[in-house]
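Predict both folds.
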Amino acid sequence: MTEPEIRNATPDNTRGHASYAIQRVLAAARARAQVHVALVTLLLQVLIGGSVVAQTTNQDASDLIDLLRSAAKDVSFDGRVVAANQTDIASTLDSVVAQIHFSAEQSVEAGDPLFTLDPTEFKLRVRTAQASLLGAQADTELANENYLRAQTLFERGTVTKPQLQKAKAELAGAQAALALAEVALDGARIDLESTVIRAPISGIVGPPNVSVGAYVKAETGAPLARIVQLDPVLVAYEEPYAEQVELFQSTALSSPDEFLGLLTIRLMLTDTLIYPIPSKPTHASSTLNEATGTVTLWAEFDNPQHVLRPGMRVRVLTEVDEDAVRRMTGEK
């Protein structure tokens, strides 16, 4: 798209989705020669997912792409950048903040330490659990020896069956206690590891909501901080839906979402600057905006340099995915 075309892509001259522009092209084509009427019919077959006759030539596919490009070139919509993912950081323990490892608005990677809680109490819990485990292991070994001895004596006839069953039950109880001691040690170790609170995702971390020395409680109160993922990001934009319904109800298209596969979108950041990485619409909202009659579409954009930021306003430009059209027409 040239610079004049970009500047003309304003809400005043935008007429809705490419489907509206396609209808305009079709109306003009009907007034032309009969050969153009046949070409328009083939265009509709492509857009509605209908069958394309085997006699379709490569020149027909090329003409279709030209028509689609002409129909979509002036279509643009207001869009906004939103975070694809964000998460609040919270503590899973009741403890005191001992260290903060980041500055506000710092870029962090998943797994980076953000906060360290006072580990003293949790180290003691690990040592206590280790001691309990050693005791449980000794009790289990003794109970096992007693059971083996009782089994041997029972075979010799010097121990009764109830005595053997008692030894077996004592062994089972010791084994259960050993298993609980192992679980307790695992839990104590997990708690100790949790004293270092790490970033669950990569992104930009906001300012900490606590300071060193603050007492924090598990999963309660305000989050300790928030991380916003910036790569990738989502772009949301509104499209008029009535024109789509009129087109789709008059054809065999199974759903409006089928048309999304034929489009590529780009972002206009200023009057002259277009974001270099294209994308495709990924999904649409299940409900309409009652006030405007529009449907919200989302597209995911790679954002390796963090140029796109949540809250940023952009213009969404619609282009034709020529490869998708060729695949639909069966052209190699």
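Second protein follows, with its predicted structure tokens after the sequence.
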Amino acid sequence: MKKRKLSKNIIFKSVGLFAGLLLLFLFYFFGVKSTVKNDSLFEVAKGASVSAIASQLQDYGLIDSIPMFKIAVRGNGGKIQTGKYEIPEGTSVWRIARMFATGDIATVTVVVPEGLTVKQIKQLLLDTPTLTGSVECGKGTDLPVCDLHDGDLFPDTYKVARGTSRLAFLDLMRKKMDDTKAVWEKTGRMMPKQLKNWNDIITLASIVQKETPKASEMPIVASVYLNRLEKGMRLQADPTVVYAITNGVGDMQGAPLLRGHLKVESPYNTYVRYGVPPAPIANVGMDAIKSVLQPADTNYLFFVADGNGGHKFSKSYEEHMKNHANWRKIKNSK
């Protein structure tokens, strides 16, 4: 009887040991062992079979066993999503299958600064190698609305799949601005009495955006322009002249703005035209929009650079000229 019990114990222990070794074997070969020697980018093409993907992975040296990859795929639900994947050095076959199953595709972060024109944004996207395709739309492209204007796009930091088309990216920016407008409409369409509609809001916000990079100053700058509109004064905003003389590029590329430029005939030149320009001169962020919808309560009518990245504000022309003289001294001393 004791011998039988001893034999059963030995058998149980042997089975347990074998099972433990098997689990250890499976854990190592599926979850630890890796043939990925360097960080790699791998694309799962649309419609590709598991066998074809496995063969590619083996050809690229990312796995060493096609059957084990197929088992790993089945273990992760048998699903593989298309896209480009960043496979880090040392990634196991199980982790690769898991990435494919969950769609853990490679992403890139693209920062679009506030205050750029559509032309500048398109060039920025063309200079971003992780995006693909053209920025000019046509029939059957990723941008349903081909006629983009300044003010239609929402500058922000975007995280998108590597290889996203530039037109799809532009459409993403357009939709975000559309969503911003929709929120404004749903919350009562409130705006300063000097403005008539959303176009006026974004147009004035674009001027504010170009005048100051400081979010804390934007409501004050907005109040200056709204006060001038209230009094029937011209806005006399330099960025509108820049927009006019650069044909909508919005960048003087280091060239100075001269007194003669202020007389250029253009519907955007607020030195010769009253009211807000007919359309925005740049694409704006939320701070600039909020500054127009919720401007500071001031009596300021003028402002000039203070030499420290900000501005000096004044209520009278005489005070403004004093501030202007101080700014010239600071500028000439540099």
